[in-house]
Design a protein that fits this description.
disordered N terminus; Translation Initiation Factor IF3; 5 helices; three-stranded antiparallel β-sheet; elongated; alpha+beta; single chain
């Protein structure tokens, strides 16, 4: 390799050898490349997947009542008038019990003919459903009595459902409980396996709202009239559950 010697002024005898084309400097600067750290959550990094379940118990603050009103009359007009009259009486009973207009909704209004064995029309049946939200449980039993009395034998209570009107706070408590459980499980499993937990690679919420809903309830208006007590309604409690999946990267213990 061709070299040339350059004397640097003021360096008192220091001689610097430069390779032609800078080859010698290039070799001096080059060396083993630094090892690039692999991302903690890459595909080849060992991982630990755990699941957590959180359960929180809360007291319902809302009762939803679904009332069906069924009447049958000789003609469609008579059936319409009859059903509307009973539906108005039920609405009035609800309002007298403290239920506001915004909490009463009409749905499933239908009218259809009835046929006898000979195939001719024997009458017309009209169905009307009212759904009401009751917030004052101390009056709920008497309200149920009143609305069935208002519609008589035409009334049909399809469902009485207790629920939590705004479940977000309760659901968040359940999720927090689920995460704490998952973290605890991950720590104990990693320790038992002689590993150390790295960063969290993923955290997913697998929760599905699951509130118990009672089935249809038939309530006879005559029973309300003969009984001195109102319908015994107990809100009880509801359990809100949450499920999460947590994935950790695993790192070798420090020596």
């Amino acid at each position: 390799m061709q070299q040339r010697t350059v004397r640097v002024a003021g360096s008192s005898g220091i001689v610097l050898a430069l390779a032609v084309g800078g080859v010698a400097l290039g070799l001096a600067a080059s060396g083993p490349s630094p090892k690039v750290a692999e991302p903690a959550c890459s595909g080849t990094t060992p991982k630990l997947t755990v699941q957590g379940t959180g359960n929180v118990t809360a007291t319902p603050d809302l009762l939803t009542v679904s009332v069906g009103i069924d009447v049958t009359d000789g003609n469609a007009q008579a059936s319409l008038v009859d059903d509307n009259s009973k539906a108005s009486a039920v609405s009035a009973a609800l309002k007298q019990g403290g239920v506001s207009d915004r909490d009463i909704q009409t749905s499933n209004v239908s009218i259809q003919p009835h046929y006898n064995l000979s195939g001719t029309i024997s009458g017309y049946e009209m169905t009307n459903t009212l759904t009401a939200k009751l917030r004052d449980f101390s009056k709920a039993g008497s309200v149920v009595d009143a609305l069935t009395t208002a519609a008589g034998n035409a009334a049909r209570i399809d469902s009485l459902t207790f629920s939590i009107e705004d479940p977000r706070k309760v659901e968040n408590r359940a999720r927090t409980d689920a995460v704490h459980q998952a973290v605890s499980h991950a720590r104990s499993m990693a320790e038992a396996a002689g590993e150390r937990l790295g960063p969290v690679c993923s955290l997913s919420d697998n929760s599905t709202p699951d509130y118990a809903t009672p089935g249809p309830l038939r309530y006879a208006a005559s029973a309300a009239k003969d009984s001195a007590a109102t319908v015994p309604l107990q809100a009880g409690t509801q359990q809100v559950s949450a499920q999460i999946t947590l994935v950790y990267a695993l790192v070798s213990p420090r020596r």
